[in-house]
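Problem 12. The chain below contains 455 residues. Write out its predicted structure in token notation.
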Amino acid sequence: MEPSNNKYPASSKLFILTGLLLLSVGMMFGLIGMLQYLIPGFLKQYLSFEKIRPLHVSSVVFWIIFGAIGSVINYVQQYTGRVIYSQRLVNIQWALFVGTTILILVSYCLGMFGGREYWEFPPVLALPIIAGWLLFSFNVIKSMPTFRHQPVYVWMWLTGVVFFLFTFLESYLWVFPSFRNNIVNDMTIQWKSYGSMVGAWNMLIYGCSIYLMEKISGDKNYGHSTIAFALYFTGLFNLMFNWGHHIYTLPSHHFIQYISYAVSMTELGILGRILWKWKSSLSDAKKHFHYIAFRFLVAADWWIFLSLLLAIMMSIPGVNLYTHGTHITVAHTMGTTIGINTFLVLAIAFDILHVNCFGAVPYTKYFNKAYWLANISLFVFWIALILVGIEKAKWQMGANRIPFSSMMHQIHPLFYFVFASGLMLATALLVIIYPMIKHQLECYSSQKSSHVKSV
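Solution.
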């Protein structure tokens, strides 16, 4: 296994750095959206809530996608010990994704919509995403010298690239009238495709996480272990079937809901056990060797536990009837998106970006404080959203409902906790990621200047 990534092209770092910038932008839009809860009409003339919400969601989703792509490209090269099959295709894909992301965000700012949840932009902008993902899939598959006796993370990468493309295409079936004209089928396919799509990028991220754990421990047998493959097959089963808990409120077949209820919690449980067992087996020397990456893996493990508890509750049909469409769902999304996906990708990013041209890691001075602030503020943020969701659930299922505006006025104080904790969380994450971005840009500038002087 290749311990360093110095000899490989920096294209994977471009994906990760672009993702970090999108995370920063997404947090800014998220804070504006929370302010609009506190100050009705805030920036309504320029960025109303119907614009802010997709700006926030798309920025964060693309942060995860860019981060996952960059992580896979880098680790594929490290694992195989050779450069990716086609560097040119990587560069084309990056240009396609960056250009499309900019067009998507601009279209939201201009009020140009036409899509569905997650992908609210005009459908034509999905075409370059499909083209870029085809290039990514081709590159990953062609970079593998063989498919025999591969560790679990290789199969996770291959499964993730194939299923993301499948579910992304599936999410656009609504453009055909035969699907769009039946509202139950339309909503079922939409919610199914989104749930499976999350499972697909989880495959990419979890695969990279297992590779990183194997890299830190130095145990090359870890990727071939029984529990690692148990996570893979459970994740694959979840990807295919656990979306059913999203459609409890639709008049669909009950056997789909029963299957999804049975499998919806298993993936996180196995991933949590892998992380817990792995970190307890490491010596202090190995922990400190990848100190920052290790800390984020530990944080993700705790958030897996918390998210699993909430997921179990939400997957009970009787409880789901109350929680569906409330801020409890938002809390679950924030816990998994930030506490699990973002923390795991940050762990991978620190591992990949720590190799630098100055021979030192420049971002450790304020890391400890920012790390703890991020986790504590995320927990407060998560609890505050759950409390807001409980109040809304009581309102929407109550026998004598007061007007919606009155209900929102009653829970208005809770939104101050949501905003304050969200602001602290964003501040902590910016303190963590800003030095990474700054240092990599300085490194790139230094290398470019040296190249020009040598010419």
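Discussion. The radius of gyration is 22 Å. Students who got a different answer should revisit the alignment rule from Section 12.3.
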